[in-house]
Please model this.
Amino acid sequence: MSERSYFKFSNAVLVAPLVAVISIWTVYFIELRLRINLNDYGVYPMSLLGLRGVVFSPFIHGSIEHLCNNTIPLALLLASLFYFYRNVALRVLVMGLLISGLFTWLIGRPSYHIGASGIIYVLASFIFFKGIFTKYYRLVAVSLVIVFIYGSLLWYIFPTEEGISWEGHLGGFLAGLALAFLLKPKMPITTKYSWEHADYNESDDEFLKHFDNEGNFIEHLEESEVETPKALKITYHYKRDSDKEL
Model:
């Protein structure tokens, strides 16, 4: 796959973030409109009923601040995922959702764990580690951008603040790391010049033959290009004198 066909914009780059953002805001609007609280649909650790939160919890948020904090990172990271890793993007989402949710269900505190932050950690972790593992310069650059923008998220995988589901963050981080190891997306074929190949031999390079050991340019002409002097050919033209008039 060439670089041009790999880094090709698709509708999913816009549709996926748009659907995700509309979904979480719609759920919050329904809660306000109907004056209900859907926190009971979050992940509740070690409870059979709490398992439904593995699927539903990313759509539920406790406050407008919580919702706003998750909206922009979710949209940007989803767009990055579907642009740079579109052939594995859906698998990353589904598997990341299940792994991070089940991890939270297993080790979480006895409380309802809600919010899309677990998915955000899945996306940030996957995009960062996968870019590093591929060693492809454009994807490594994306990884560095992720660190620059979202590097501070790393602190929240530890129990530093009350009311924050660090278990969900840790589960998302580990899920993204595991998926970066396991999933093998198709990578673009990087064009290599002749001197980048392992079997490159400088003595066989036609271009380098035009330079001496000190780097001075020497013009080498092919035998067909060298003009050989032609044999000198002399042609005599005899002019007959006309009869003189008497």
In short: The two ends are 97 Å apart (CA to CA). Residues 105 and 176 are 17 Å apart (CA to CA). Helices lie at 3-6, 12-34, 53-56, 64-84, 89-107, 117-134, 137-150, 166-182. The longest helix spans residues 12-34.
